[in-house]
Amino acid sequence: MRIPEFGRGWRIQTSWLVLVLTLGLALLSCEAKEYNAPPDGQKKDVYIVIFEDMPIVTYNGKITGLRGTAKYFSEKWRKSHKRAHISDLVKKYNEYLIKEQDAILSDFFGFGDCEKTYRYTHLVNGVALPLTADEALRLSEHPKIVRVEKSYKVYKSTVHTPDYLGLPKGMWARSGGPAGAGENMVIGIVDTGIDPTHPSFAARGQKPYGPLRKFRGTCDYAREFPRGSCNGKIIGARFFNAAAKREGSFNATIHFASPLDGDGHGSHTASTAAGNYGVPVVFNGARYGLASGVAPRARVAVYKALYRYIGGSIPDVIAACNQAVADGVDILSLSLGPNAPPGGATSTFLNILDVALLNAVKANVLVVQAAGNGGPFAKTVTSFSPWVLSVAAGQDDRVFRNTLTLGNRGVIRGTGLAPATKGAYLYPLILADDAVAGKGDPALTPSSCQAASLYNRLLVRGKILICTFSFDFVYGGATMQQLAKTVKTLGAAGVAMMVDSDNAGGKYEVIPLSVPFIIFPSSASSNTLLAYYNRYTKKDRKGKIISFGATAKIGNGQTMTYTRSAQQVASFSSRGPNVKDFNFDEADILKPNVMAPGYLIWGAWTPIGTDNPAFTGQRFAMMSGTSMATPHVAGLAAMLKAKYPRWSPAALSSAMVTTADVADRQGRPLQAQGASADSTPFLQAATPFDMGSGALNIQAALNPGLIFEAGHLDYVKFLCSQATPREVLGSTKTACPVRAGMATDLNIPSITFANLVGTKLVPRTVTNVAPVAEKYTITITNARDFVVTANPSVFTIGVGRRNKQAIVFTVRATRASQASSFARITFTGSLGHVVRIPVSVVNKRLR
Ligand SMILES: *[C@@H]1O[C@H](CO)[C@@H](O)[C@H](O)[C@H]1NC(C)=O
């Protein structure tokens, strides 16, 4: 068979490679019938099988399996042929891949029409199909198969801490950008789907979203995701559940076989990246300000591959990424990751997801991924590779302050994201235990206010009920929603909540409530309230109350103030050092890369999401996690790409990380929350292993001055320093150069040594992206156990063809140590650009 081939070294560009749509789903499985039949009862799991021919994104005419039949087209030939012709060749190559896949499988299974869970041709050349362990092993030995990897699970990177108020609005104020930010950009969101009826994604009332020719995605419609759901703002919507279905975890009743979000997480992340500008946040009827995505004019392309409770299976996630890149998204936002480094390859960088993402980057798509929520412990990052931008979560030090003003004019400070008691009146206080009707129900603790039936309604009506927050609210069945319901049913004026211990108080998660509410998370302030109550509440000898003399009013806890205080690395945010293998050996690549707000973020929610009971039935929710931080970065990337359409993923990501803030507005270093037993987080200076380069700075990122450029071959060369040439060839279809070099040669805006022995040279090349020449001076804050010098340390960088400058950094261990230490290299430009790169070294040896 003759295969059309492209010119040697000619790389496929996204613009036309996406003309080929990869094949969709084929839902039946390969059942090896008579031939190779597995022993009865042997369990089948879904595996991804990767073939030796290169996928469409890496196809360049140099195909191992086709050498000999190849006809290489010259550059001249390529230029003289039409786009339509080239796209025809890609179509033919796609057909060839499919034929080869089928030929190899039928060769193995012994019959012709083996059907797959998935067929992939775009990002990877493979199939997903159910196999027994035995079949998987035998398939992996097939000469035309390079790897066989068992499906693994990925999860939403959310923690169940509710969110932080008004941040998108605050970010908008800081970015100063128009509501047109992100125009004509498509952000692909691989998540739990989307609620198409949400005002954050409404097209009506917005400047019309015209057709976008570069995007070729489609929408999967269903009864619950009707026509019209894709409205221009939502420009594509697909779902991928074949593996989840095969694995038995998919339940159509709650997961929906459509792009509809049955969880809330996907709508939330999409609204943070690209939700409409100025959408009122209404929760339980109360307004909490306005929400906006970071790039409110960007389009949203939805690839649903995660499901409520169960997370996602990697074959579904890869199918989603494969489709997103084939459709032509500009940015891929992944608020997901495994719980631990997945196995299957010798290197974390060669795990099947990272290989697919490498090819997405090759197709010019920037990939942004959550760093994970395994913090504050070391080596918990679950986003590994240098071609992926990994996002840590920052927490603002804002608390939702509220006050309880007492009848004796005392004031107790607490927390409460809730309205004030009505009017200027003082209301009598009543302790829940004093309000129990009759004998009560011994199965229920009256102090947690979970059932209205327990209390004497006449006694409670018009009073502020004092309830107690205990571990029942954390691990037991007690909920704040039930508490609010009790207060409403009883006609109480509001609720003041004590804690039964500091430990329980430390676990209180802020959620908005619709009834007047305040909580005192420390036992000291709780005791102040109780003492006041006891002093003014008169009881007879039997303990029966004679008069309620303690009175109070609850302040308004809903007022929003954006404090602009510095972010701290949230305790849950996963930490470096990054790991290069499954023994958790440290890697020479920095992770995470940058920090963005990820604590108590208001975002769109779907009323049918039951994932978090606090937000069931609501259209907005406050969520925390690196999941929430990730779409902030995806949104900024869309703004950047709209401004600089020709920038590579490496350039976009470099602009965001080199301009990140490392200090607060007063110049104090940013801090990280460490592990602590009680409610007060232990703070320490944030290192690059906590926050990467620092906190995202939208304004600065839009004008970075210098960038660090890297492309596919650089990443492959990096991989060659991490794995055998055979492994690299198998996964990337690209041969290693004769001299692989060192991982630290990769031109990224960070320098990381897991093991520094003596002195090492680290080359870097910067590219001037400002329109004029600029003189830069390099300064270095040195570390405890090593020194860094730069050559040259002063240079003037031009524009046009003279816009590059090579620099060699010398990193020398000055003291043997196994403790991590850090330095920072700062390029200060004469025109005001400041470019920073972090240096981190784990082990140091003098020779
Ligand atoms: C699917 O979910 C529904 C709703 O929770 C439940 O009633 C049903 O039993 C589930 N089906 C399966 C097969 O688990």
TrEMBL record:
<keyword id="KW-0378">Hydrolase</keyword>
<dbReference type="Pfam" id="PF17766">
    <property type="entry name" value="fn3_6"/>
</dbReference>
<dbReference type="InterPro" id="IPR041469">
    <property type="entry name" value="Subtilisin-like_FN3"/>
</dbReference>
<comment type="similarity">
    <text>Belongs to the peptidase S8 family.</text>
</comment>
<dbReference type="InterPro" id="IPR023828">
    <property type="entry name" value="Peptidase_S8_Ser-AS"/>
</dbReference>
<keyword id="KW-0720">Serine protease</keyword>
<protein>
    <recommendedName>
        <fullName>Subtilisin-like protease</fullName>
    </recommendedName>
</protein>
<keyword id="KW-0732">Signal</keyword>
<feature type="active site" description="Charge relay system">
    <location>
        <position position="627"/>
    </location>
</feature>
<feature type="active site" description="Charge relay system">
    <location>
        <position position="265"/>
    </location>
</feature>
<dbReference type="InterPro" id="IPR010259">
    <property type="entry name" value="S8pro/Inhibitor_I9"/>
</dbReference>
<dbReference type="GO" id="GO:0006508">
    <property type="term" value="P:proteolysis"/>
</dbReference>
<feature type="domain" description="Subtilisin-like protease fibronectin type-III">
    <location>
        <begin position="745"/>
        <end position="841"/>
    </location>
</feature>
<dbReference type="InterPro" id="IPR023827">
    <property type="entry name" value="Peptidase_S8_Asp-AS"/>
</dbReference>
<keyword id="KW-0325">Glycoprotein</keyword>
<feature type="active site" description="Charge relay system">
    <location>
        <position position="191"/>
    </location>
</feature>
<feature type="signal peptide">
    <location>
        <begin position="1"/>
        <end position="32"/>
    </location>
</feature>
<feature type="domain" description="Inhibitor I9">
    <location>
        <begin position="85"/>
        <end position="155"/>
    </location>
</feature>
<feature type="domain" description="Peptidase S8/S53">
    <location>
        <begin position="182"/>
        <end position="674"/>
    </location>
</feature>
<dbReference type="GO" id="GO:0005576">
    <property type="term" value="C:extracellular region"/>
</dbReference>
<dbReference type="Pfam" id="PF05922">
    <property type="entry name" value="Inhibitor_I9"/>
</dbReference>
<dbReference type="InterPro" id="IPR045051">
    <property type="entry name" value="SBT"/>
</dbReference>
<dbReference type="InterPro" id="IPR000209">
    <property type="entry name" value="Peptidase_S8/S53_dom"/>
</dbReference>
<dbReference type="InterPro" id="IPR036852">
    <property type="entry name" value="Peptidase_S8/S53_dom_sf"/>
</dbReference>
<dbReference type="InterPro" id="IPR015500">
    <property type="entry name" value="Peptidase_S8_subtilisin-rel"/>
</dbReference>
<dbReference type="InterPro" id="IPR034197">
    <property type="entry name" value="Peptidases_S8_3"/>
</dbReference>
<keyword id="KW-0645">Protease</keyword>
<dbReference type="Pfam" id="PF00082">
    <property type="entry name" value="Peptidase_S8"/>
</dbReference>
<dbReference type="GO" id="GO:0004252">
    <property type="term" value="F:serine-type endopeptidase activity"/>
</dbReference>
